[in-house]
Design goal:
The chain has 105 residues and is an alpha+beta fold. It has 3 helices and 5 strands.
Amino acid sequence: MEFDEYKGDTKDGEYQLIIADGDTRETLDILLNRKGKTISRYLRKYWANVEIVIMDMSPSFKFAVRKALDHPLIIADHFHFYRYIYWVLDKVKRRIQSDWNDYDR
């Protein structure tokens, strides 16, 4: 199962959540908001046996998934995985370059 949020506009929220098959990426459902309670209720009702969830590493998403499912394996989606790597590498680069003189930087 894969989660991906997108900006829309419904009476329930400014952002919605797409639930997709983690292998085929086929859309399974769209939640009208991305609130933790909504996610937890939905997962318990329709997907209680899911073992793997692919998503961004939003603390509220992780909390909702852990609350609803029995010991799920949570995996960062490819976009966020690469973004986290970029952030770490950028921090290292900035730290190293802070010791350089302006000309070499």
